[in-house]
Amino acid sequence: MNWMIFGIEAAVFLGLFTIMVILPAKKNPAVGVHNYPKEIQEEYFKTHERIETAPLSKRTALVKSVGILMFVVFLSFGAWLCGVKGFWQGFLYAVLIFAIVGAYDTFFLDWVLFSKLPMFRLPGTEHMDEAYAQKWFHVKGMLFPGVLFALIIGVLTGLIAMAF
User: Which of 30, 111, 138, 147 is such that its CA lies 20 to 30 A from the CA of 99?
Assistant: First the structure.
């Protein structure tokens, strides 16, 4: 595995992930309502049609499954470009990239952008500064189900890398 290419790819994945998160959030902030703390969801649903947000709901499972598949496709291509050989290198590559993206998502996107910039707040919840600033909520999400997603993506990317 070429670590210089890995570093470049990590930066590219951060950019792609940022675009994949910010564009839909700006267009329709409610698309990711399942990722917000319960207090924010409840306040939002006082004035908007309630949609299913439970972690095991069909809607949430579909959104997360599409995200996992997109990551596997992107990471498998990146692993190939990086010169990954075999299951374990593919697994390690995917888990490391996913960990970098997960940390960036939590510590920058969630803690800084989404909690501080009004343009990312759900309509009707703009006044909920304290609820948006819940750092532990985002850390817990990064740890679980984040680690579970990383393992699934790592295994799938590793299996694909076996064909390289």
Answer: 30
